[in-house]
Amino acid sequence: MTVSRLQHIPGIGVDLVGAAADAAHDPDMLRLENLDTDLRPPQIALDITRRAIDDDATNSYLPFQGRHDLREAAAAHVGRIAGRDYDPAAGCAIVAGGLNGVLNTLLATVEPGQEVVLGDPVYAGLVNRVRLAGGVPRHVPCRPTPEGWRTDPAELAAAVGPDTAAVLVMSPAMPTGDLLGHAHWDALAPAVAEHGCWVIYDAAMERIRFDGKAPEHPAAHPQLADHTITVGSASKELRLIGWRVGWVVGPPRIMADITLVGMANVVAPVGIAQQAVAAALDAPEADADVAAATDTWRRRCDLVLSELADYPCLRPHGGWSLLLDTAALGLSPAEASERLFRYGKVAATPMTGWGPQGRDHLRLVFANEPAERLAGLRERVAAAFG
After folding, report:
1. CATH no. for residue 226?
2. pLDDT tens digits, residue range 229-245?
3. What's the pLDDT tens digit per position in 214-231?
4. Average pLDDT score over the chain
5. Largest alpha-carbon pair distance within the chain?
6. Are 312 and 325 in contact (CB under 8 A)?
7. Other CB atoms closer than 10 Å to residue 158's CB: what's the count?
8. Quick one: 59 and 77 in the same domain?
9. Residues 6+ apart with CB under 8 A from 385
10. Among residues 280, 344, 255, which one has the least CA distance to residue 47?
11. Cβ–Cβ < 8 Å for 304, 100
């Protein structure tokens, strides 16, 4: 029998579509289902990883909070973007990927039955971690507009109340590509101060913006700085997915608890990967590297939108994915996914469990296929939907 904590955790769907695509063994299958990318990681990270394999010091559990050089790099990275100083010893912990950091943070900040404010649509893996921690998701709608997905700052703030433990935000949001910024933090600050909740900022994609602007970090807001916990990751911006390295940076008064949870959950991040991530974060060309990758992803996004100009899609403002409104086509996301797979040789994830609006949308990841393969998407979709 399923234990109670799993009764409302349906999975994320990506694994099922990915397994079916793998089993097909068809090189013509377009892999748009998983948040992968074919763009290579920074060369410095590859070189240092190879050297680390022969370094006995990397083959260790210690230190449990992560190597000090990586904590220094992560704390400095977050501090540079947020305009804050963070103590790498007391204000930073290294984790096994960003979502490990999110779960550790939720377990350290959410009492069972408390609410966690989230967007809608939103990545099912975030919703599931809220539930696993005993929290109750409270969704704030991200609405379709002619300019793309938008979250109303007043609605975000209004969702915070006496039962709120945390507001879990991401910008660009996954999977919509919506951007949150100063207007949202201005609206949110009085509610956070009144109710004493946390802002958990998932920074995994914060520099993957298609407007060329710098991230707008909630900790840069003077009233939110002491309430913001930043969870970062090497997986998206640095393309170091298989390295499984992330970081949590925040006020020391909560970081001690997050570190304690981490020692009970996973224990230690990947030893041979940490020096590589530190070097990639610290590299003088780091911002230029992320900008170059982002430009490639933006051009792929533009190509997919052009290919699907006759279908109900909204332009994302960043990130790796965009959404197709299957309800407008008279289909459920599962039906649309099955038809695309069978008739178009396209693997795409139905968004069941990705917030209330997820039941109407299919996610298409444009980060993992080169332009020459994406260029035939129009014909594939037409074969599936007519």
Report:
1. 3.40.640.10
2. 999 999 999 999 999 99
3. 999 999 999 999 999 999
4. 96
5. 58
6. yes
7. 13
8. yes
9. 311, 329, 331, 336, 339
10. 280
11. no
Residues for the chain: how many in total?
A: 386
Q: What is the pLDDT of residues 37-63, one digit of tens each?
A: 999 999 999 999 999 999 999 999 999
Both structure tokens of 261: 């949870």
Domain span at 146: 43-282
Number of domains in the chain: 2
Q: How far apart are the two ends of the chain, measured CA to CA in Å? A: 43
Number of neighbouring beta carbons within 10 Å of residue 116? 28
Report pTM: 0.97
**For residues 110 and 166, what is the distance between their CA atoms, to the nearest angstrom?**
7
DSSP letter string, 136-156: EEEEEEEEEETTEEEE-HHHH
- Amino acid (1-letter code) at residue 1: M
Which of 244, 259, 282 finishes a domain? 282
Dist CA 159 CA 165 (whole Å): 12
Whether residues 48 and 79 fall in one domain:
yes
CATH number at residue 28: 3.90.1150.10
Give yes or no for a contact between 214 and 182, defined as CB atoms under 8 angstroms apart.
no
Residue from 100, 173, 102, 166 nearest 141 by CA: 173
Cα–Cα distance measured from residue 338 to residue 333, given in angstroms and rounded to the nearest whole number: 9
Which residues have a Cβ under 8 Å from the Cβ of 89 and sit 6 or more positions away?
68, 71
Cis amide linkage into residue 190, ω under 30° from 0? no
| Closest of 236, 327, 345 to residue 17, by C-alpha | 345
Kindly write down the DSSP assignment for every residue of 344-362, as one continuous string.
I-EE-EE-TTSSGGGGGEE
Burial of 257 (C-beta count, 10 Å sphere; 0-12/13-18/19+): middle
Question: Quick one: which of 299, 150, 141, 77 has its CA closest to 210?
Answer: 299
**Cα(11)–Cα(157) distance, integer angstroms:** 29
- 191's tokens: 């509610």
Q: DSSP class of residue 182?
A: H
State the angle between helix axes of 43-52 and 271-282 in degrees (0 to 180), rounded to the nearest 10: 150
